[in-house]
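Hi there, hope your week has been kind to you so far. Would you mind checking whether the tokens look sensible for this chain? I owe you a coffee for this, so here goes:
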Amino acid sequence: MTKMNRRSFIGTAGAGAALLAAPALAQARTKVRVGYLHTLAVDGQMWLAQETGAWARNGLEPEFKLFTTGLELFQAMVGGSLDMLSTGAVISNFPARGQGKMFLVNCVEFATAHLWVREDMGIKSFADLKGKRIATTTGTTAHVFLDTALRANNIDPAKDVEILNQRMADAVTSFIAGAVPAVALWVPFNVTVRDKVPGAKKLVDASAYFPQAAIVSGWAARNDYYDRNKDVLANVVRAWSAGNDMLVGKTDEALALLQKNHYQQVPLPDLKEQFAAQKVYSGAEWQKLYADGTVTKWLQQVTDFFVKFGNIQNAVSAANYFDPTIYTGTAKG
């Protein structure tokens, strides 16, 4: 064999080895079962991470499963069919029961929860709500907000009103049909109410109680998964951070991309309205909010509500069910 032929052979063999290795490298990505709610405050960064290839770049192959409520999400995760999830206020509920460890925050749901009323049914102010029924989905962001709003206006949620527990789509339908004069909801259900009941009035939204009653959305992992896979959680944070960087730094481009590929049924102006109802922060800002205990405080506020509402015995504090170090030790400031 000549030197030239030998080089040719080695080069060909090397190329063949690379081709054989490519599928193996592709298969090396870790599969992760992720449950989520389809609302911008919960899945915005998640989809942007996918659009930018950040999941694959960080060695992950997520399998996304859509749910309609955070309660169903946690039930699925606790039952073992999910490894982790992204949800709203219920992130402060199940982990306080020892079911799941939280490790990542999406945003503050600054004004995503609304209280809408029907003036044609005699409701023009909080005082008019006494003795009336209010539809919502209990145990969710909307319910936490409703409890805060009622108490702030001297109305006892347990005695002065009747709270009707329905899935949000059904609660909105009840309001539209006139079966109830008020509904506590989260965006984008406000668009349906506004379109179907032109005379409906938004009495208040969650921004009125920020930051005293801030509600965050975020990610939690199953207890055993958290214990054994902190390296995977760190990669989730890295991928999510790429999506967050785009959402914060290139907002118009990010929202247009999300609308085109994931929110086709939501007009871009409405999606922008949804975005304006939440607070997102840069990596450096999140680092500070994690490190100084602000996030933990926000979580504990909502946990305190669930402890009372759900009669949680021996509740785990936010300081113990939330691990900020996955983020602070991984994400760039």
Residues 259 and 267 are 7 Å apart (CA to CA).
